[in-house]
Automatic annotation (TrEMBL):
Lineage: Bacteria, Bacillati, Bacillota, Bacilli, Bacillales
PROSITE patterns for this protein: ABC_TRANSPORTER_1 (PS00211), ABC_TRANSPORTER_2 (PS50893)
Gene3D superfamilies named among the record's database cross-references: P-loop containing nucleotide triphosphate hydrolases (3.40.50.300)
Keywords, in A-Z order: ATP-binding, Nucleotide-binding, Transport
Protein's name according to its UniProt entry: ABC-type nitrate/sulfonate/bicarbonate transport system, ATPase component
Matches recorded under InterPro entries: AAA+_ATPase (IPR003593), ABC_transporter-like_ATP-bd (IPR003439), ABC_transporter-like_CS (IPR017871), ABC_transporter_ATP-bind (IPR050166), P-loop_NTPase (IPR027417)
Organism: Solibacillus silvestris (strain StLB046) (Bacillus silvestris)
């Protein structure tokens, strides 16, 4: 039986007393080991919601709970992975991966071993001594993933993590992420505006609408973990979401699993 990892209860947020309402009455749960994609157009509040889940921004109303404890500030239990990689250019690949655990109580040898383990997991063990400037964008993102994994978080928050990459590199990293998630049993919350990425990676998709940001629909993906973008079932969900965003001429009502 699945256990609830994150609870979002009637969360609302505005920027200032007279500022716009960015989030309004947002409520949903995320189970342990689940991959949730938050999908929506630019400006719908999805990145703000992700920042609130991570404790990087405060909320005006409601509650965000991680394992039953209110989220009020950032924690190493819940790590954010950004599109811009966030690597320190003067540090080697290995030293960048070690960054998040340098202030832990681990012995130096254990820190080095853990960094090496996660670099191997993302296929970059042979580039451990390279500088970020010597790597492609895809490799830099893999370093960022290894750094996040080295902290051994319970939840990884991902804000358009592959958005700046070319199509083939993005597909490769999506496969890498899927394999790592299944191996490590992590809970992942993915913000994206890429419909195919959401269908390929997620167990459920939450579609947001803007002004103010609200959860408009939930789509439960009844697909195997190993997915093929060309399969009819994959295309079926793609059509459902395209219709929801009115990207096609067919405006017929579509049933969702809610």
């Amino acid at each position: 039986m699945s256990t609830v990892k994150i609870e979002i209860k009637e969360v609302s947020k505005s920027y200032g007393e007279k500022g716009p309402t960015v989030l309004k009455d947002v409520s949903f749960n995320i189970n342990h080991g689940e991959v949730i994609a938050i999908l929506g157009k630019s400006g719908c509040g999805k990145s703000t919601l992700l920042n609130c889940i991570g404790g990087f921004e405060t909320i005006d109303q409601g509650q965000i709970m991680l394992d039953g404890t209110a989220v009020t500030k950032p924690s190493k239990r819940c790590i954010m992975l950004m599109q811009n990689y966030g690597l320190l250019p003067w540090r080697s690949v290995r030293k960048n991966v070690e960054l998040g655990i340098e202030n832990s109580n681990l012995p130096t040898a254990d820190i080095t071993k853990r960094a090496a383990n996660y670099l191997q997991m993302v296929g970059l063990e042979d580039r451990a001594n390279a500088l970020p400037s010597e790597l492609s964008g895809g490799m830099q993102q893999r370093v960022a993933i290894a750094r996040a994994l080295a902290i051994q978080p319970e939840v990884i928050l991902m804000d358009e993590p592959f958005g700046a990459l070319d199509t083939f590199t993005r597909y490769y990293l999506q496969d890498e992420l899927k394999q790592i998630q299944q191996r490590e049993k992590m809970t992942i919350v993915l913000v994206t505006h890429d419909i195919d990425e959401a269908i390929y990676l997620a167990d459920r998709i939450l579609i947001m609408k803007p002004n103010p940001g609200e959860i408009h629909k939930e789509v439960v993906l009844k697909l195997p973990k190993d997915r093929n973008r060309a399969d009819a079932d994959f295309q079926h969900y793609r059509e459902i979401i395209f219709n929801e965003f009115q990207f096609t001429h067919d405006k017929a009502a579509i049933e969702f699993n809610i």
